[in-house]
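Thread title: Can someone regenerate the structure for this chain?

I was given the following input by a collaborator and told the matching structure tokens would be attached. They weren't. Posting the sequence so someone can regenerate them.
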Amino acid sequence: MHVAIASHYRLPVTGYGGTERVVVALVRGLAALGHRVTLLAAPGTRVREATVLEIELGRLTDPAANLAGLIPRDADILHTHFPVQQRLERPLVQTFHGNMLPGSAVPPNTIFLSHDHARRFGSEVFVHNGLDPADYVFRSEKDEYDLFLGRLHRAKGYRWAIEGAKRSGRRLLVAGAWRPSFRRNIRYVGRVDGRQKADLLANARCLWMPALWDEPFGLTTIEALFSGTPVLGTRRGALPEVITPDVGALCDTLDEMVAAAETIHTRDPNTCRAHAERYFSHLVMAEQYVRMYRGLLSEGTLPRGRPTR
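Best answer:
Regenerated them for you:
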């Protein structure tokens, strides 16, 4: 199958860029499964598993642009990672990576990131995100620190992680793009990427994921699991689909999280890695997207998503 994938970012990304990492992982997965991939992306994009067509910034998402004219004539399907409002004669699917306002119209052939994400917008069509395990360092021996990694925004719950560290006295490393004021046992390490990020994840005793909003997926969660690091999360959005009792703990309150943190380290790092490889690798994600493509091409509709368990 020849799949045209469109992203309005330069790939691969520097910095966090969760959506961009998923797009690159999908390209790798499709290529590994034997499919031909053409990648439409911003100038400077270099992804060796695909034929890259560099498209000037803003042109892909411009409603007045002729998107159909940018697609190779022999492509079987176009897969965008941004909303497309214009009608195309070519088969099209589009992955929605965020949250919409309640009652918003869902664009046609939209694929969500989790069962919960789809359900909230009246759909059953989803594919869980996946990443390439080779991008992450696995370590079974952990250091004595907990980790929060993500945007330092109220919805991400970083204040719960900080309060949990204050109550327990446990060392906490906070990685993100904005620096608040911390006390002595809480260390801010700034925005991280590449090997530094991989090492932080691999060495952490656990990852705090105290989401206070409905996460469409929660990519940092599987980054930790690939690293053999258990996850301490809330029961919001997709997190119950990703975190099972043998790889982490789900809580409703800060008090529950502080209590669960006392035993979070008893999870087996090998089980964490195996869980991520079984359900959330780039190959598993690519297989599920191929199922979506074939369903649309043969039946004219997208099939239901498949839950992890």
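The first strand starts at residue 2 and ends at 6.
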